[in-house]
Design a protein that fits this description.
By secondary structure, this protein is of the alpha/beta class. The protein has eleven helices and 14 strands. The protein has two domains: 7-138, translation initiation factor eif-2b, domain 1 (Four Helix Bundle (Hemerythrin (Met), subunit A), Up-down Bundle), CATH 1.20.120; 140-349, Rossmann fold. It has a seven-stranded mixed sheet, with helices on both faces. Bound molecules: 5-S-methyl-1-O-phosphono-5-thio-D-ribulose.
């Protein structure tokens, strides 16, 4: 089976970025080319590339695209321009901290190298850093998969939300990595995938990725999760995250918090899987995480068809925050955080 590749850099310092356009799935597998930050910005905002780690990786390559455009300028001038491009990309989406984490690393390369002979050298260093971010994510995802699969050993069915596989990361994913790794170990789980309203990442992307790997997937509407739990069809819930605070409160796709409440009621373990790049230790309380508000049309005109009267008032937060007390464990590439509390989070993530 060929791996899903959501983000790829083609060529060397004069190369370009390629993104698998996730808005076209599952009907069409289309890869688009990016050569400037403005079109990449649009791709992030419109979710052509999405999922917290994938956004960070794409933005890191975006800094390289920004640098290519000013490669003819002296280093002092080009550095200012590249930092501006990083600031610009950072305004594309507010919740996933991976975006800011990756761009901070790219800014660090610029700031540490003011004395380079010319900007071409800086472009080379930026590309090296972006590739490192990309490779590290690949390794982190595989490690998360190993720890996650161990936690799912007794389960036959699991419930997941949104999309957390290769499309959302560099390769294996976060929550889905646990399921893929379990399959690699000969343990095939029955996955219940929430369709994930309003943009249907579960239906369009997770069901597709699971099919690519011949993992049994049953698609449900988000509102069916309680019934699925009551019927005993799942022994675990596993999701990804877009930002996790120092005490373990976790922002993820809207609907995740409700699932955690349901899992608690049904005494089902609720796992969050995420790499180091998703933790924001500068925030303790989840209420401080900025929640992206998206356009009303995503609800009133889902997939382009009007499903609500004209001028209907809409509330469309793209994420919610699950408090740490509802999370059984957070699965990271450095190990499993359980119980989820500030001491444990800091011990594993800051070490
Ligand atoms: O709005 P999206 O599709 O970017 O939201 C993505 C999610 O909420 C994922 O669950 C999260 O980024 C984890 S991805 C490994």
């Amino acid at each position: 089976m060929s791996e899903v590749v959501s983000v790829a850099w083609k060529g060397d310092v004069d190369g370009h970025l390629e993104l698998l356009d996730q808005t076209m799935l599952p009907l069409c597998v289309e890869v688009k080319t990016y050569q400037d930050t403005a079109t990449l910005f649009e791709a992030i905002v419109s979710l052509r590339v999405r999922g917290a780690p994938a956004i960070g990786i794409a933005a890191a390559y975006g800094a390289v695209l920004g640098a290519q455009k000013v490669a003819h300028l002296p280093i002092a001038e080009s550095s200012m321009e590249i930092l501006k491009e990083c600031d610009y990309l950072a305004t594309s989406r507010p919740t996933a901290v991976n975006l800011f984490w990756a761009l901070d690393r790219m800014r660090g390369v610029v700031r540490r190298n003011p004395g380079l002979r010319d900007t071409h050298e800086l472009v080379r260093l930026l590309l090296r850093e972006a590739r490192l971010i990309h490779d590290e994510d690949r390794q982190m995802c595989h490690a998360i998969g190993e720890f996650g699969a161990a936690l799912l050993r007794e389960a036959t069915g699991v419930l997941t939300h949104c999309n957390t596989g290769g499309l959302a990361t560099s390769e294996y994913g976060t929550a889905l990595s646990a399921i893929f790794t379990a399959q690699d170990q000969g343990h095939v789980l029955q996955v219940y995938a929430d369709e994930t309203r309003p943009l249907l990442q579960g239906a369009r992307l997770t069901a597709w990725e699971l099919q690519q790997r011949q993992i049994p997937c049953t698609l449900i509407c988000d509102s069916m999760a309680a019934q699925v739990m009551r019927e005993g069809r799942v022994q675990a819930v596993i999701v990804g995250a877009d930002r996790i605070t120092a005490r373990g409160d976790a922002a993820n796709k809207i609907g995740t918090y409700g699932l955690a409440v349901l899992a608690k009621y049904h005494s089902i373990p609720f796992y969050v899987a995420a790499p180091r790049s998703t933790f924001d230790l500068s925030i303790v309380d989840g209420s401080q995480i900025p929640i992206e508000q998206r356009k009303s049309a995503e609800i009133t005109h889902g997939l382009g068809v009007q499903t609500a009267p004209n001028d209907t008032t809409v509330y469309n937060p793209a994420f919610d925050v699950t408090p740490s007390e509802l999370i059984t464990a957070i699965i990271t590439e450095r190990g499993v955080i359980a119980p989820v509390c500030e001491d444990r989070v800091r011990a594993i993530i800051s070490s």
